[in-house]
Model the fold of this input.
Amino acid sequence: MIKILANSTYRQLFLAQVISLVGTGLGTVALGLLAYELAGEHAGAVLGTAFAIKMLAYVGLAPIVGAFADVLPRKTMLVALDVVRVAVAAFLPFVTEIWQVYVLIFILQSASAMFTPTFQATIPDVLPDERDYTKALSLSRLAYDLENLASPAIAGLLLTVMSFHSLFAGTALGFLISAAFVVTATLPKSKQGKRRSIYDRTTRGMRIYLSTPRLRGLLSVNMAVAAAGAMVIVNTVVFVQAQFGLSETETAFALAAFGSGSMIAALSLPALLDRVKDRPVMLAGGVMLAAGTVLSALIDNYEQLLPLWFALGCGYSLALTPSGRLLKRSVHETDRPAVFAAQFALSHACWLITYPLAGWLGSVFGLPLVGIVLAFLAIFGVVSAIIVWPGDDPEIIEHSHPNLSPDHPHMAVGDLLPDHRHAHPYVIDDLHFMWPQGR
Done:
C-alpha cells in the first residue's frame, strides 16, 4: 500500500489530506467542547444544528462546483479554499454565542463543499490503475481516521496543558500546511467534456448517479453510514460527559476507539477487495453499522461504549471505503468530477437527516430513543441497498441501440453481437440514457 507514495504528485496530495484532517480532527473535538461550554447538557442539540448547517452547505454547493470543476484551474481552486478555511478557523476561538458558531460553520463547510469533491476527483487521474487507486482509497480512509483516532488522542494530551480554545489554532495550521502541499504538487489537467448548458452541467452528475443501480445501492449504504456515524459524532460527548459524568479526555478517547476500528478495517481492505467484490464487503459493513446502532440504545456505562464504538468504526470503514471504486467504474473520465460531487452531495443529504435527529431527539427524549430511530434508518439503508443493487453487477453489459444506424461509430465499440447489439463497459452518458432492463 505504501508503495503508491512513490508517485510524487499523489504523495503531496496525501500529505495535504493528512495534515488537513489532523487539524479538522482537533477542530471537531474543540467544537464539541465549545458546544458543551455554551449549552451544557443541550450540547447535542447545538452540535446537531451545527452539523445540519454543514450538510446544507455540502448538499447545496457540491453539485454546482462539480459542474464546473473540469474548467476551473484545480490547484488555484484548492489553495484558495484552504486559505478561506484557515481564516474561519482562526475566528472560532473567539466565539461567545451559539449563533456565531452556526455562521462560521456555514462559511467553513461551504469551502469544504467545494474543496473535497474536487480533491477526490483528482486522485483517479493521478492513479489510473485500479489496484493503485484501491490502495489510495484505503490510505485516504486511514487519513480520515486520523480525525477519529490521532486527532482526539492529540487533543486529549493537549487538553491537559491548555484550554480547548487553543485547539482551533491547530485546525488553522492544518489547513495552511495543506495549502502549501497542494502548491508544490503538479496536478494533471482535467479533461473537459463537450460544452453544455448550465442546467445540464449542474444536474448531470445527479442524473448519472441516480440512473446507475450500483450507485443507488451506494446511496442506500450511505444512509446506514450516516445513521451510525451521527450517533457517534453528535452524542459521544453527551454519553461520556453528561450521562457518565466523565471528563473531556474520556470523550477524546471514545472518539479514538471509533477511529481505531475504522483504521484496522481500512488496512485490511486492499487485500480483501482483491478476493471479494465491493458489494458483499460494503453490505457487511452496513449490517455491522445497523447492529451497532441498535446496541447503542442499550449502553449503560463507558466500558460498554468503547468496544461498541470500535465495532462501529470497523463497519464504517467497510461500508464507506470502496465507494470511490464504484464511482470510478460507473462514469467516463470527463464526467468524474460531476459524479464525485453528486456522491458528496447525496451522501451528505443522508447526514442532513441523521445529524438533527441525533442531536434534537437526544436533547428532548434521551439517548435510547435516538438509538432506536437511527437504527431503523440504518436497517432501512441496508435493506434498500440489497434490493436496488443487483448481486450480479457486471461492468460489460450486452445492449442495443435501436435509435442508432448500423454504421454509427459507436456500434463498432466493444464486442459486436447479432441483432444490432453489442457489449462493452456500460455507463450512463449521451448514448446510454438508462440502465438496460433486468440489470
User: Anything to note?
Assistant: The chain has 15 helices and three strands. The mean pLDDT is 81. The radius of gyration is 22 Å. The beta strands are 396-400, 415-417, 421-425.
